[in-house]
Amino acid sequence: MPQFTLIGLCEPKDAASQAAFDEWFVDQHIEDTTHCPNFVRGQVFKLAGKHLSIDAPSQYLSLYEVEAESYEEAERVLNEWQADPNAWPGRAQHMATMAKHGEIPMVAHGSGWYELLATYQGSGKSSYRAT
Question: What is the pTM of this model?
Answer without folding.
Answer: 0.85
